[in-house]
Structures are given as C-alpha cells and as structure tokens.
Design brief:
Blueprint lengths: L23 H9 L5 H8 L3 H16 L4 H9 L4 H10 L4 H12 L5 H7 L4 H14 L7 H31 L1
Length: 176
C-alpha cells in the first residue's frame, strides 16, 4: 500500500503560508480509519452513502491496493511501531499473556480466536479469557467480534494522535 502516505500531508506549508486543503479522498480515507459508519461519514462530508461507497470502492481502495475496510486497517496497522503497542500494553496494565494476545490481535487481525490460541499454545477458553480481560482493561464491555475491531480502531487512533502531537511539537520547535 504505497499510497497510504498521502493521508499524512503536512497541515501547513513549510514557509508558514496558508494551510493545505485536504482532498476529498484524503478526508474519506481518514474517516474510514475512524470508528464511523459509511452513513455517518457520508453525512459528515455532505454526500450520500451510495456516492461515498462508489468513491471508496472504485477509487480509494484500488489506489491503495486493498479491497475492504478491514484490509485497509490491516495495512495501516503494519505501520504502527512496536513501541507504540508496548506503550499501550503498559497504559492498560496488560499481563505478559495478555500482551502476547494483544500483539497478535493487532498485528494479525485476520486470525480467529482459536488460531491465536494455537499460536500461543493455549486453549480457546483461555484465549477468550485473555481477550475479555483486554477488552475490560480498554474500557470495552462485552465479548463480541466487534470489540476486536474496536481494539484495532483504538490502536490506530492513538498512534495517529501521537503522530499529530509529535508534528505539532516539531512545528513549535521550528518556530522558536
């Protein structure tokens, strides 16, 4: 996914002139990497759901070499540094087994619970317990597959936030 970098354009030109405007594709892609549904994204962008879906499936996904929103997340998650994942493990006070589970949930989101259990040489019920504790520690109630997706959203969102903070710190240093 060589084109993923296009969503990370600087907000301001280096010489301090007017902010650069994001293209509609950039706005949609950033929204897709969030927690909103297609209908919510379409409403936010002032378009209808069918037009948004057509833009995504016929222009954005082919340009990025993915076919689904899930593939988009998988590719985006590959860019999240290990240090950020370790920071989240510390932030949520995950045990060693929970950390291993968390890393596999994030790095290999296509794996089913029983496949994660197999990779970690655990039973499926033990894996279910680890995952449920991770969800609870991250403030997610329940045990549905939707929660795995929410974990992925949260990992990517927090990484994006740290990237934005670092960029702002760098911009302030250059101004000083």
């Amino acid at each position: 996914m060589t084109a993923l970098h296009f969503i990370h354009l600087p907000e301001h030109q280096a010489n301090g002139k007017q902010p650069l405007e994001q293209t509609p594709e950039q706005k949609v892609l950033l929204a897709l990497l969030g927690e909103k549904t297609y209908a919510e994204i379409a409403t936010d962008l002032g378009t209808n759901t069918q037009a948004l879906y057509k833009l995504v499936t016929q222009k954005i996904y082919p340009m990025l070499g993915v076919r689904t929103r899930r593939e988009l997340f998988v590719e985006a998650l590959r860019r999240v540094p290990r240090e950020h994942l370790q920071h989240l493990c510390e932030q949520y006070h995950l045990t060693k087994k929970e950390r291993l589970t968390f890393f596999l949930m994030v790095r290999k989101p296509q794996l089913k619970r029983e496949e994660i259990a197999s990779e970690l040489h655990s039973s499926e019920s033990t894996m279910r317990n680890h995952m449920n504790r991770i969800y609870r520690k991250m403030g997610l109630s329940g045990t549905s597959a939707k929660h795995r997706t929410m974990v992925i959203f949260r990992v990517y969102k927090t990484w994006q936030e740290t990237q934005t903070e670092r960029k702002e710190d760098t911009d302030e240093e250059h101004r000083a």
